[in-house]
Amino acid sequence: MKNKRRSRGFSHERDLVHRLWEKGFAVIRAPASGAKARRYAVPDIVAIKQGVVLAFEVKTIHNERPVYIPNRQVDKLLEFTKRAGGKPYIAVKIIGITGWRFIPVEELEETRGGNYRVSVEKIHNSLRLPDIVSLMLGNKLLTDYASIGEEDS
Amino acid sequence: MKNKRRSRGFSHERDLVHRLWEKGFAVIRAPASGAKARRYAVPDIVAIKQGVVLAFEVKTIHNERPVYIPNRQVDKLLEFTKRAGGKPYIAVKIIGITGWRFIPVEELEETRGGNYRVSVEKIHNSLRLPDIVSLMLGNKLLTDYASIGEEDS
After folding, report:
1. Can you give the pTM of this predicted structure?
2. ipTM, 2 decimals?
Protein backbone atom coordinates (compact mmCIF):
# COMPACT_ATOMS: atom_id res chain seq x y z
CA MET A 1 0.00 0.00 0.00
CA LYS A 2 2.73 2.39 0.99
CA ASN A 3 4.65 1.37 -2.10
CA LYS A 4 1.61 1.87 -4.32
CA ARG A 5 1.24 5.39 -2.95
CA ARG A 6 4.83 6.15 -3.76
CA SER A 7 4.48 4.82 -7.27
CA ARG A 8 1.46 7.00 -7.93
CA GLY A 9 3.54 10.02 -6.96
CA PHE A 10 0.79 12.02 -5.31
CA SER A 11 2.53 15.38 -5.36
CA HIS A 12 3.30 14.98 -9.05
CA GLU A 13 -0.27 13.95 -9.65
CA ARG A 14 -1.36 17.24 -8.10
CA ASP A 15 0.88 19.01 -10.60
CA LEU A 16 -0.93 17.31 -13.46
CA VAL A 17 -4.32 18.15 -11.94
CA HIS A 18 -3.22 21.78 -11.76
CA ARG A 19 -2.08 21.86 -15.39
CA LEU A 20 -5.34 20.35 -16.62
CA TRP A 21 -7.32 22.82 -14.49
CA GLU A 22 -5.33 25.71 -15.98
CA LYS A 23 -6.32 24.49 -19.44
CA GLY A 24 -9.98 24.85 -18.53
CA PHE A 25 -10.80 21.24 -17.69
CA ALA A 26 -12.96 20.11 -14.79
CA VAL A 27 -10.64 17.69 -12.99
CA ILE A 28 -11.27 14.96 -10.45
CA ARG A 29 -8.75 12.67 -8.75
CA ALA A 30 -9.70 9.25 -7.53
CA PRO A 31 -9.63 8.60 -3.80
CA ALA A 32 -6.47 6.85 -2.60
CA SER A 33 -6.28 3.43 -4.18
CA GLY A 34 -7.31 0.46 -2.12
CA ALA A 35 -10.24 2.32 -0.63
CA LYS A 36 -13.67 0.76 -0.95
CA ALA A 37 -14.45 3.73 -3.15
CA ARG A 38 -12.34 2.15 -5.89
CA ARG A 39 -14.21 -1.13 -6.22
CA TYR A 40 -15.41 0.23 -9.53
CA ALA A 41 -13.17 1.09 -12.46
CA VAL A 42 -11.73 4.52 -11.65
CA PRO A 43 -8.65 6.10 -13.25
CA ASP A 44 -6.17 8.15 -11.19
CA ILE A 45 -7.33 11.38 -12.83
CA VAL A 46 -10.33 12.27 -14.99
CA ALA A 47 -10.46 15.58 -16.87
CA ILE A 48 -13.56 16.80 -18.68
CA LYS A 49 -14.12 19.80 -20.93
CA GLN A 50 -17.51 20.35 -22.55
CA GLY A 51 -18.27 16.64 -22.59
CA VAL A 52 -14.81 15.62 -23.82
CA VAL A 53 -13.35 13.12 -21.35
CA LEU A 54 -9.68 12.25 -20.75
CA ALA A 55 -8.83 9.43 -18.33
CA PHE A 56 -5.33 8.94 -16.93
CA GLU A 57 -3.34 6.35 -15.06
CA VAL A 58 -0.36 8.24 -13.66
CA LYS A 59 3.19 6.85 -13.49
CA THR A 60 6.16 8.78 -12.22
CA ILE A 61 9.67 7.34 -12.31
CA HIS A 62 13.04 8.63 -11.14
CA ASN A 63 15.32 7.51 -13.92
CA GLU A 64 15.26 6.53 -17.57
CA ARG A 65 13.70 3.07 -17.58
CA PRO A 66 10.68 1.46 -19.19
CA VAL A 67 7.36 1.80 -17.37
CA TYR A 68 5.29 -1.31 -16.65
CA ILE A 69 1.53 -1.19 -16.25
CA PRO A 70 -0.38 -4.16 -14.78
CA ASN A 71 -3.15 -5.37 -17.10
CA ARG A 72 -5.80 -4.80 -14.39
CA GLN A 73 -4.97 -1.07 -14.47
CA VAL A 74 -5.34 -0.99 -18.24
CA ASP A 75 -8.60 -2.94 -18.07
CA LYS A 76 -9.91 -0.49 -15.48
CA LEU A 77 -9.02 2.48 -17.66
CA LEU A 78 -10.69 0.90 -20.70
CA GLU A 79 -13.83 0.01 -18.77
CA PHE A 80 -14.09 3.59 -17.53
CA THR A 81 -13.67 5.19 -20.94
CA LYS A 82 -15.98 2.67 -22.59
CA ARG A 83 -18.71 3.89 -20.23
CA ALA A 84 -17.81 7.58 -20.13
CA GLY A 85 -16.76 7.96 -23.73
CA GLY A 86 -13.40 9.66 -24.19
CA LYS A 87 -9.81 8.66 -24.39
CA PRO A 88 -7.58 6.60 -22.04
CA TYR A 89 -3.95 7.63 -21.51
CA ILE A 90 -1.00 6.59 -19.41
CA ALA A 91 0.56 9.81 -18.08
CA VAL A 92 4.29 9.35 -17.50
CA LYS A 93 6.85 11.72 -16.04
CA ILE A 94 10.55 10.98 -15.54
CA ILE A 95 11.17 13.26 -12.58
CA GLY A 96 13.75 15.94 -13.31
CA ILE A 97 14.18 14.73 -16.89
CA THR A 98 10.92 15.03 -18.81
CA GLY A 99 7.67 16.88 -18.37
CA TRP A 100 4.41 14.93 -18.66
CA ARG A 101 4.17 12.54 -21.58
CA PHE A 102 0.94 10.84 -22.63
CA ILE A 103 0.70 7.40 -24.18
CA PRO A 104 -2.68 6.38 -25.63
CA VAL A 105 -3.57 2.93 -24.27
CA GLU A 106 -3.75 1.45 -27.77
CA GLU A 107 -0.04 2.25 -28.22
CA LEU A 108 1.12 0.23 -25.20
CA GLU A 109 3.37 -2.78 -25.86
CA GLU A 110 2.05 -6.01 -24.41
CA THR A 111 4.58 -8.04 -22.40
CA ARG A 112 4.85 -11.82 -22.53
CA GLY A 113 3.17 -11.97 -19.13
CA GLY A 114 0.08 -10.19 -20.48
CA ASN A 115 0.87 -6.84 -18.87
CA TYR A 116 1.93 -3.63 -20.59
CA ARG A 117 5.11 -1.66 -21.10
CA VAL A 118 6.24 1.73 -22.38
CA SER A 119 9.85 1.97 -23.57
CA VAL A 120 12.14 4.88 -22.68
CA GLU A 121 12.22 5.89 -26.34
CA LYS A 122 8.43 5.85 -26.48
CA ILE A 123 8.22 8.04 -23.36
CA HIS A 124 10.51 10.62 -24.95
CA ASN A 125 8.57 10.63 -28.21
CA SER A 126 5.06 10.72 -26.79
CA LEU A 127 2.46 13.43 -26.82
CA ARG A 128 2.64 16.41 -24.46
CA LEU A 129 -0.25 18.11 -22.72
CA PRO A 130 -0.94 20.73 -25.42
CA ASP A 131 -1.02 17.93 -28.00
CA ILE A 132 -3.69 15.89 -26.29
CA VAL A 133 -5.70 18.99 -25.47
CA SER A 134 -5.62 19.99 -29.15
CA LEU A 135 -6.41 16.48 -30.28
CA MET A 136 -9.35 16.10 -27.94
CA LEU A 137 -10.82 19.49 -28.61
CA GLY A 138 -10.77 18.90 -32.33
CA ASN A 139 -7.99 21.29 -33.20
CA LYS A 140 -5.13 20.12 -35.27
CA LEU A 141 -2.22 18.38 -33.60
CA LEU A 142 0.74 20.60 -32.85
CA THR A 143 3.45 19.03 -34.94
CA ASP A 144 6.35 21.11 -33.70
CA TYR A 145 6.91 19.58 -30.27
CA ALA A 146 10.09 21.64 -29.85
CA SER A 147 8.10 24.87 -29.68
CA ILE A 148 6.22 23.93 -26.53
CA GLY A 149 9.14 23.50 -24.16
CA GLU A 150 7.37 25.51 -21.46
CA GLU A 151 5.44 22.35 -20.67
CA ASP A 152 8.67 20.74 -19.55
CA SER A 153 9.16 22.69 -16.37
CA MET B 1 -14.62 17.77 9.82
CA LYS B 2 -16.12 14.78 11.59
CA ASN B 3 -19.51 16.42 11.26
CA LYS B 4 -18.95 17.12 7.56
CA ARG B 5 -18.19 13.45 6.99
CA ARG B 6 -21.38 12.46 8.72
CA SER B 7 -23.41 14.87 6.66
CA ARG B 8 -22.01 13.47 3.44
CA GLY B 9 -23.18 10.02 4.53
CA PHE B 10 -20.39 8.03 2.95
CA SER B 11 -22.13 4.67 3.03
CA HIS B 12 -25.19 6.15 1.37
CA GLU B 13 -22.96 7.83 -1.17
CA ARG B 14 -21.59 4.41 -2.06
CA ASP B 15 -25.16 3.28 -2.67
CA LEU B 16 -25.67 6.11 -5.16
CA VAL B 17 -22.36 5.29 -6.85
CA HIS B 18 -23.52 1.70 -7.19
CA ARG B 19 -26.87 2.69 -8.71
CA LEU B 20 -25.24 4.98 -11.26
CA TRP B 21 -22.72 2.27 -12.13
CA GLU B 22 -25.57 -0.22 -12.65
CA LYS B 23 -27.14 2.22 -15.10
CA GLY B 24 -23.99 2.12 -17.23
CA PHE B 25 -22.30 5.32 -16.05
CA ALA B 26 -18.60 5.70 -15.36
CA VAL B 27 -18.62 7.00 -11.78
CA ILE B 28 -16.00 8.77 -9.71
CA ARG B 29 -16.23 9.96 -6.11
CA ALA B 30 -14.21 12.87 -4.85
CA PRO B 31 -11.56 12.20 -2.22
CA ALA B 32 -12.69 12.95 1.34
CA SER B 33 -13.43 16.65 1.65
CA GLY B 34 -10.86 18.87 3.24
CA ALA B 35 -8.03 17.06 1.48
CA LYS B 36 -5.62 19.12 -0.59
CA ALA B 37 -7.04 17.22 -3.54
CA ARG B 38 -10.16 19.33 -3.24
CA ARG B 39 -8.63 22.74 -3.67
CA TYR B 40 -10.32 22.76 -7.05
CA ALA B 41 -14.05 22.61 -7.59
CA VAL B 42 -14.99 18.95 -7.25
CA PRO B 43 -18.50 17.58 -6.64
CA ASP B 44 -19.09 14.61 -4.30
CA ILE B 45 -19.90 12.33 -7.23
CA VAL B 46 -19.44 12.67 -10.99
CA ALA B 47 -21.16 10.25 -13.38
CA ILE B 48 -20.44 10.19 -17.11
CA LYS B 49 -22.05 8.25 -19.94
CA GLN B 50 -20.90 8.77 -23.51
CA GLY B 51 -19.85 12.34 -22.80
CA VAL B 52 -22.98 13.21 -20.81
CA VAL B 53 -21.90 14.48 -17.39
CA LEU B 54 -23.92 14.54 -14.15
CA ALA B 55 -22.40 16.22 -11.08
CA PHE B 56 -23.80 15.69 -7.59
CA GLU B 57 -23.52 17.16 -4.14
CA VAL B 58 -24.89 14.51 -1.81
CA LYS B 59 -27.05 15.24 1.25
CA THR B 60 -28.52 12.58 3.48
CA ILE B 61 -30.81 13.43 6.37
CA HIS B 62 -32.54 11.34 9.01
CA ASN B 63 -35.92 12.99 9.26
CA GLU B 64 -38.28 15.16 7.26
CA ARG B 65 -36.70 18.59 7.34
CA PRO B 66 -35.47 21.09 4.75
CA VAL B 67 -31.93 20.64 3.45
CA TYR B 68 -29.55 23.58 3.51
CA ILE B 69 -26.64 23.88 1.09
CA PRO B 70 -23.84 26.43 1.67
CA ASN B 71 -23.37 28.73 -1.32
CA ARG B 72 -19.71 27.69 -1.66
CA GLN B 73 -20.88 24.13 -2.41
CA VAL B 74 -23.28 25.37 -5.05
CA ASP B 75 -20.59 27.60 -6.57
CA LYS B 76 -18.20 24.63 -6.69
CA LEU B 77 -20.79 22.49 -8.44
CA LEU B 78 -21.53 25.23 -10.98
CA GLU B 79 -17.85 25.86 -11.67
CA PHE B 80 -17.32 22.14 -12.28
CA THR B 81 -20.25 21.75 -14.67
CA LYS B 82 -19.42 25.01 -16.47
CA ARG B 83 -16.04 23.46 -17.32
CA ALA B 84 -17.14 19.86 -17.87
CA GLY B 85 -20.44 20.57 -19.54
CA GLY B 86 -23.36 18.67 -18.04
CA LYS B 87 -25.86 19.14 -15.30
CA PRO B 88 -25.46 19.92 -11.58
CA TYR B 89 -27.78 18.27 -9.06
CA ILE B 90 -28.23 18.09 -5.31
CA ALA B 91 -28.85 14.41 -4.47
CA VAL B 92 -30.98 14.09 -1.34
CA LYS B 93 -32.09 11.03 0.58
CA ILE B 94 -34.22 11.01 3.72
CA ILE B 95 -32.92 7.80 5.25
CA GLY B 96 -35.62 5.19 5.70
CA ILE B 97 -38.25 7.47 4.16
CA THR B 98 -37.37 8.30 0.57
CA GLY B 99 -35.05 6.92 -2.07
CA TRP B 100 -32.69 9.30 -3.88
CA ARG B 101 -34.23 12.54 -5.07
CA PHE B 102 -32.45 14.95 -7.41
CA ILE B 103 -32.88 18.70 -7.39
CA PRO B 104 -31.37 20.63 -10.33
CA VAL B 105 -29.30 23.50 -8.93
CA GLU B 106 -31.41 26.10 -10.74
CA GLU B 107 -34.43 24.96 -8.71
CA LEU B 108 -32.84 25.66 -5.31
CA GLU B 109 -34.42 28.34 -3.15
CA GLU B 110 -32.02 31.04 -2.06
CA THR B 111 -32.09 31.88 1.65
CA ARG B 112 -31.83 35.40 3.04
CA GLY B 113 -28.25 34.64 4.03
CA GLY B 114 -27.30 33.88 0.43
CA ASN B 115 -27.20 30.11 0.89
CA TYR B 116 -29.62 27.55 -0.55
CA ARG B 117 -32.49 25.43 0.70
CA VAL B 118 -34.66 22.55 -0.45
CA SER B 119 -38.05 22.22 1.25
CA VAL B 120 -39.44 18.87 2.41
CA GLU B 121 -42.20 19.17 -0.17
CA LYS B 122 -39.66 19.79 -2.90
CA ILE B 123 -37.64 16.74 -1.83
CA HIS B 124 -40.73 14.54 -2.10
CA ASN B 125 -41.65 15.92 -5.50
CA SER B 126 -38.24 15.87 -7.10
CA LEU B 127 -36.82 13.73 -9.86
CA ARG B 128 -35.72 10.14 -9.27
CA LEU B 129 -32.77 8.39 -10.76
CA PRO B 130 -34.56 6.98 -13.84
CA ASP B 131 -35.89 10.47 -14.57
CA ILE B 132 -32.51 12.17 -14.66
CA VAL B 133 -30.99 9.30 -16.62
CA SER B 134 -33.77 9.61 -19.21
CA LEU B 135 -33.49 13.37 -19.27
CA MET B 136 -29.75 13.37 -19.73
CA LEU B 137 -29.67 10.67 -22.33
CA GLY B 138 -32.24 12.47 -24.42
CA ASN B 139 -35.15 10.15 -23.82
CA LYS B 140 -38.43 11.51 -22.70
CA LEU B 141 -39.05 12.17 -19.04
CA LEU B 142 -40.95 9.47 -17.21
CA THR B 143 -44.02 11.34 -16.08
CA ASP B 144 -45.53 8.63 -13.93
CA TYR B 145 -43.24 8.76 -10.89
CA ALA B 146 -45.47 6.26 -9.06
CA SER B 147 -44.52 3.52 -11.48
CA ILE B 148 -40.85 3.51 -10.57
CA GLY B 149 -41.14 2.65 -6.91
CA GLU B 150 -38.36 0.07 -7.22
CA GLU B 151 -35.91 2.96 -6.95
CA ASP B 152 -37.17 3.57 -3.42
CA SER B 153 -35.60 0.57 -1.78
Report:
1. 0.84
2. 0.83
